[in-house]
Amino acid sequence: MTTLRFSYQTKVEFSGDVTNHAFLLRSFPIEEKGQKVLDLMHTNSPIVTGGQYLKDGFGNTVYTGRIDRGHDSLTYKVIGTVIRDDSKKSFEKPLPSYRYPSELTKASPEIINFHKNLNLPSNHYEAAKIISKAVYDYMIYETGTTGIFTTAADSFKGRKGVCQDYAHLMLALCRLSKIPARYVCGITIGEGETHAWVEIWNEGYWYGFDPTRNCFVDEGYIKFCIGRDYNDCPIQRGIFNGDVLQRQSVYMEVTKLKEALLA
């Protein structure tokens, strides 16, 4: 069992005023057996009108809000404490959509050939270990080479990308192997930005793999949202009136609390 304190902040800046700004956020830890939220504080600037918390089709917490008056930036911050315990898992059946290719995880002929050469065992967990390492070995981590619309086929062809590209490629290979698998977005111990990894279903339980780092997901990871691919898990989306340019900056920090601080 591990107790984590986290802070997550995003600031969206516009080159001029925008109005009628409607947005949604998915920057809240998932509540499940292995991840318990002890406390949580969420703030927005400017003040939001009619904000509310909802659940999407995958069970993720979504905050929707609106700012009608003119403003040239939006900042939101989430601070909280989470207990992670990987010894606690829920027995469940995977959604059917986790078994099939999604828009960003369709396998190209090249990915199919790559998959054939992996010689995977029938056990989902053991096969996922091989797939995760294969993705790690094949890809080169490089920022600025891909974007949110980049597919698994695109990143496989270019052999470069970031965590979401690694996750999409692993998802494509898992689903080719008939392994139910889902995309996960969240944060990990340290400082920086959000991270993406994969969970696979094996004999009733979900297990996390991080192909970007070639490791198993441990209690240093906090899950914000899950889905078929990135399209189901954007941390922030919005629409507004205004002919402007925009820039987004993200900062997160996760630290492990010592037992003495919890007494």
UniProtKB/TrEMBL annotation:
Residues 155-213 form the Transglutaminase-like domain. InterPro entries: Bac_transglu_N (IPR013589), Papain-like_cys_pep_sf (IPR038765), Transglutaminase-like (IPR002931). One of its GO terms (molecular function) is peptidase activity. It comes from the Bacteria. Keywords: Hydrolase, Protease. Transmembrane segments: none annotated. GO terms for biological process: proteolysis. This is Transglutaminase-like enzyme, putative cysteine protease. It comes from Lachnospira multipara. The lineage of its organism: Bacteria, Bacillati, Bacillota, Clostridia, Lachnospirales.
